[in-house]
């Protein structure tokens, strides 16, 4: 009789009971009510410290002077020279900080907006428009991600030189208005988040495909589009290789401008890292403003299926 009360027997009996809505609700309540343990919080604290350490290190060196990084009596407390070093970066005529900052904001915003629009349109077509050759074409688009950008730099530069676009900000915007990753991301998201029955109902009601895309596809794609736009903006902001090649030193983006701080024989790393920290402030503000949409996009993508 005692064997019937064993945990194994109880689990078998419980598994044989039909999964009613009440049992699902009770199981969900137990899962939601379960609190994270000590090791979960300890792991999160380690990840947080590891993520914040590069910013603190940059601020630590950026608040010192030219001898701080090689000081044998190095102190882990910040100095008092950060504002002076930041002012040196901003007022340095070789860096041309404010035009470079505007070029980075302008180009990154346009690239992010263009990638979101083109990726959402292409993702809708691949996910919900059934046409011949859609699967091989999607495979080809995804396969282009395996081709490194360095292989196309020479022909791309020759093309823009023939067009007379070298030295202009459009030379870094036009090649980046589409993204193979963005197309794949939006295709997968729209394929899971928009039921085909909803599109068929809209077509039965007389809505055109453009109206269906605008009223259903765009609304459903907002979290994924916000996440894609955020990551595209960060990628375009941090891009150094192609802007360094195609833009003039008199009108660069911010990463290229900050590299001029290291062009001398003697490099003052306190000024360099102060400039690096200044370049990350707009990205931190962007993450603060768009953090809600970012978390929403991650959570909605995680619960699909």
Task: Describe this protein's structure.
This protein is an all-alpha fold and 305 residues long. It is built from 14 helices and no strands. It is globular, with a radius of gyration of 26 Å. It is a multi-pass membrane protein. This is ABC transporter permease subunit. Keywords: Cell membrane, Membrane, Transmembrane, Transmembrane helix, Transport.
What attributes characterize this protein structure?
mainly alpha; MetI-like fold
Whole-number tally of structural domains: 1
> Which range does the strand content fall in?
under 5%
List the helices and strands in order. Answer: HHHHHHHHHHHHHH
Number of strands: 0
User: Separation of termini?
Assistant: 43 Å
Q: Give the overall form.
A: globular
What is the CATH architecture annotation? Orthogonal Bundle
Helix content: over 70%
What class would the helix/strand composition place it in?
mainly alpha
Name the average pLDDT. 83
Low-confidence stretches: 1-18
CATH hierarchy, class: Mainly Alpha
In CATH terms, the superfamily is MetI-like
Number of helices: 14
Biggest sheet, open or closed, and with what strands and sense?
A: none
Please state the CA-atom Rg, rounded to the nearest Å.
26 Å
CATH fold category name: MetI-like fold
Quick rundown:
About 70% of the residues lie in helices and about 0% in strands. With about 300 residues, the chain is mostly helical. It has a single domain, classed as MetI-like fold (Orthogonal Bundle), CATH 1.10.3720.10.
Question: How is the secondary structure organized here?
Answer:
Blueprint: H1 7-16, H2 21-33, H3 38-62, H4 82-91, H5 97-128, H6 134-143, H7 153-163, H8 170-173, H9 180-193, H10 196-204, H11 209-238, H12 241-246, H13 254-259, H14 269-302
């Amino acid at each position: 009789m005692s064997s019937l009360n064993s945990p194994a027997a109880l689990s078998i009996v419980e598994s044989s009971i039909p999964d009613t809505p009440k049992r699902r609700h009770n199981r969900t309540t137990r899962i939601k009510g379960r609190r994270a343990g000590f090791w979960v919080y300890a792991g999160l604290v380690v990840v947080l410290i590891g993520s914040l350490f590069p910013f603190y290190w940059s601020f630590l060196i950026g608040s010192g002077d030219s001898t701080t990084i090689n000081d044998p009596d190095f102190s882990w407390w910040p100095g008092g020279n950060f504002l002076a070093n930041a002012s040196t970066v901003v007022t340095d005529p070789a860096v041309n900080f404010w035009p470079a900052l505007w070029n980075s904001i302008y180009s990154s915003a346009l690239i992010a907006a263009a990638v979101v629009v083109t990726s959402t349109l292409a993702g809708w077509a691949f996910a919900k428009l059934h046409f011949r050759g859609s699967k091989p074409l999607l495979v080809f688009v995804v396969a282009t991600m395996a081709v490194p950008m360095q292989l196309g730099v020479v022909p791309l530069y020759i093309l823009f030189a023939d067009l007379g676009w070298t030295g202009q900000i459009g030379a870094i915007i036009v090649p980046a208005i589409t993204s193979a990753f963005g197309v794949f991301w939006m295709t997968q998201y729209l394929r899971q988040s928009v039921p085909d029955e909803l599109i068929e109902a809209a077509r039965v009601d007389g809505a055109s495909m453009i109206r269906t895309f605008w009223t259903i596809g765009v609304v459903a794609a907002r979290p994924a589009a916000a996440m894609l736009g955020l990551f595209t903006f960060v990628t375009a902001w941090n891009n150094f290789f192609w802007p360094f090649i195609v833009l003039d030193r008199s009108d660069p983006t911010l990463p290229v401008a900050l590299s001029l701080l290291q062009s001398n024989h003697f490099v003052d790393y306190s000024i360099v890292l102060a400039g690096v920290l200044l370049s990350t402030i707009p990205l931190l503000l962007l993450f603060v403003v768009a953090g809600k949409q970012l978390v929403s996009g991650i959570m909605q993508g995680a619960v699909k299926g």
